[in-house]
Amino acid sequence: MKTVLGYLRPHARRVAVGISIKFTAAMLELALPLLLAHIIDDCVPAGELGAIRRAGLGMMVLAFGAAFCNVTANRMAARVSMEMTRDLRRDLYRRAQSLSCAQADRISLSSLVSRLTNDTYNVHQMFDKIQRGGIRAPMLVLGGLTLTFLQAPLLGLVQLGACGLTFLAIALVTRRGIPHYTRAQEAVDTVVRILRENASGVRVIKAMACQGRERARFEEANRAARRAEETAGGIMAAANPLSDFLLNTGLVLVVAAGAVLVNAGWLASGQIVAFLSCFTLIQTATLGLAKLFVKLSKGVASARRIEEILLAPEDQPARPGAGRNGPELGMEKVSFSYLGMEQDLEDASFTLNKGETLGILGPTGAGKTTLISLLLRLYDAGEGVVWVGGRDAAGLDRTDLGSRFGVVFQNEALLNDSIYENISFLRSLPREDVEAAAGTAQIGDFIRSLPEGLDTRVDIRGANLSGGQRQRLLIARALAARPGVLILDSADSALDYRTAAGLYAALRRDYPGVTLVVISERVAALQEADHILVLEEGRIAAQGSHAQLLKTNQRYRKMAELQMGGGLT
Q: Do 461 and 403 belong to one domain?
C-alpha cells in the first residue's frame, strides 16, 4: 500500500507543468523591480517620455502575465489535490473495510470516521497549499536574493540573514506544533465518538431523560478538543509575528545600509527602490510560507494517522497449510481473549455435521457471540482449531469464508433504501430469491400488504418498522443468497412464540441442507437442535441433545421448566 506522498506520483506530470508555470510567474514578478530601477535611473534623468511609457507598458504586461500564470497554476493545483484526495479517501475506505476486528477495535470506529473525513481534508489542504504557495514562495525568495547579491552583495547578506533567521524560527515553531495537532485530532476522535453514541442511542437518552448528562459529556469533550486546538494554534500563531519582526528588522537594515551606499555614491537610488521592491516580494513570500507551515503541520499530523491505516499489516492472512480435514463445523480446544488477560472463551470443543442444527444457550457474557465471531473468523483463536466446511478456518481467505455464511447479529444496520435492497444487500440478487427468503423469514405477507411491496423504502435504521419486522427483514437478508451455514444470534428476541415457531419450521422445510447455528434464550427454539451447547463464564458447561441436557444439566432443565412448564421428560 502507498504512503500518502505516493498519491501524488500519478499526477507528477501535471505537478511538473504547474511548477514550470509557477516558475514563469515568479520570474515575471522578479523582473518588475528591474524595470522600475531602469525607469528611475535611466529614463527619468534622460527625460525620455517614450522610454518611460514603453517600460511602464512592459511592467503592465509582466504583471498581467504573472497573474495569468498564477491563476492557471492554482487551478491545476486545486484539481490535482482534489483527485489525489479522492483516490486517498477511496483507498483508505477500502483498507478500513479490510482491517481485522482486532485492528478496528484498537483504532476505534470514531477514529476511523475522523480519519476518513477530517484527516483527509487536512491532507487535501496541505497538498493544495504546497502546490500554490510552497513552490512560488521559495522561487521568489531565491530569485530576490540572487538579484540582490548580483547588484549589491552587502544588501544581499542583510536579506539572507533576515530570511535565514525567519526560516529557522518557522521550522522550530512547526516542529513543536505537529505533535500538538496530532493530539488535537485525537480529541476530535472523542467528539465524533460521543456524537455517534448519542445519534444511535437517541431514543434511550430521551426515554431516560439523560439529555442534560449527555450535553455535559459532549461539552466536556468539545472543550478538550478546543483546548487541544488552541494549544496547537497558539504555538503556530507565533510564526507570523516572529516572521514579521525578523523581516521588518531586515527591511530597516536594508534601508539604512542602502542610504549609506547611495550617499557614498556606490549605489543608484533606483537600485535601492528595486531592492526594496525585491525585499517586499521576499517578505510577502516568506509570510506566505509561515501560513503554509500551519497547513503543513496539520497535514503531516493527519497524514501520519492515515498511514497508520494504509500501512497496517495484514492481520489475518489465509494460511493454506494450516490444516487437516475435519468436521463441517466445530472447534477443537479453542481458547480466546479480547484483551490478552483473562480468557473470554476457554477450551471449547464441539463438532457439527452438514445439515445439522447447533443451539447455543447461556447467560449474558457467557461467550456466545465470541464463539460465533471465531466461527466467522472475525477474530483468530488464540489456541486450538476452528473448523468450517471441513477445513481449518485459518486456511480460508475472507471471500471464501464469507460466501459460506449467512448471519444475523443482535444489532444489525438497515439501509435507507428499498426493502429489496435491504434484503439483497447490494448483491443484485434475483427478486424471486428475495421474495422466497422473505417468505421463509415470515415477513412475506407484510411486504405484500405494502402499496409498493419490495420497493417500499425503509427509513434510516428501520425507524418505520417494528422490532420484529426489522429482525425478520435481517433474517431474510441472511437467507437470500442460500448460504451453507446460517447463524442466528438472538435473531428471535423480538418475535412472538408463534412467529418464531413458524420461522424455524419454515427453515427446516425450505432449507433442508443448511447447517444452522442458533443463539437463543428460548429453550423452545433449541429443543429440535441436533446439538446444544450450554455456556457459562466462557466455558462449555454442558453439551448434548435437548433430552440429554434435561437429564444431565440442572441449569438447562430449570430454564426449560420456567419457559415451557412442568412435566418435562
A: yes
263 located within any domain: yes
Shared domain for 18 and 45, answered yes or no, is yes
Q: Does residue 14 fall inside a structural domain?
A: yes
Beta bridge partners of 332: 385
Ramachandran category for residue 482: left, alpha or beta (phi over 0 → left; psi -120 to 50 → alpha)? left
pLDDT in tens, 219-278: 888 888 888 888 888 887 777 777 778 777 777 777 777 777 777 767 666 667 777 777
pLDDT of residue 562: 82
Q: Which residues of 349-386 are buried (b: 16+ CB within 10 A; e: fewer)?
A: ebebeeebbbbbbbeeebbbbbbbbbbbbbbbbeebbb
Contacts of 246 (CB under 8 A, 6+ apart): 162, 165, 166, 169
Report the distance separating Cα 286 and Cα 290, nearest Å.
Answer: 6
Q: Within this chain, do residues 404 and 547 fall inside the same structural domain, yes or no?
A: yes
CA distances from 229 to 169, 291, 303, 330 (A): 21, 16, 17, 51
Answer yes or no: do 209 and 265 share one domain.
yes
496 by DSSP, 3-state: which? Answer: coil
Residues 6+ apart with CB under 8 A from 425: 415, 477, 480
**Predicted pLDDT of residue 316:** 73
For residue 534, the surrounding DSSP H or E stretch is: strand 531-536
Residue 316 falls inside a structural domain: no
431 within a domain of the structure (yes/no): yes
264/332 same-domain check: no
pLDDT of residue 201: 74
Q: Which distant-in-sequence residues (6+ apart) come within 8 Å of 124 by Cβ?
A: 81, 82, 84, 85
Give pLDDT < 50 ranges for the chain.
Answer: none
Return the pLDDT at 566: 58
State the pLDDT at residue 440. Answer: 92
Q: Which three cell numbers stand for residue 210?
A: 439523560
- Contact assessment for residue 538 and residue 334, using Cβ atoms and an 8 Å cutoff: no
Domain span at 429 = 321-564
Calculated CA dihedral for residues 116, 117, 120, 122, nearest 10 degrees: -150
What is the count of structural domains for the chain? 2
Q: How far is CA 338 from CA 193, 341, 344, 371, 373, in A?
A: 21, 8, 7, 12, 11
**For the domain that residue 335 is a member of, what is the CATH number?**
3.40.50.300
Q: Within this chain, do residues 349 and 298 fall inside the same structural domain, yes or no?
A: no
Q: Nearest CA to 495 among 486, 505, 482? A: 505
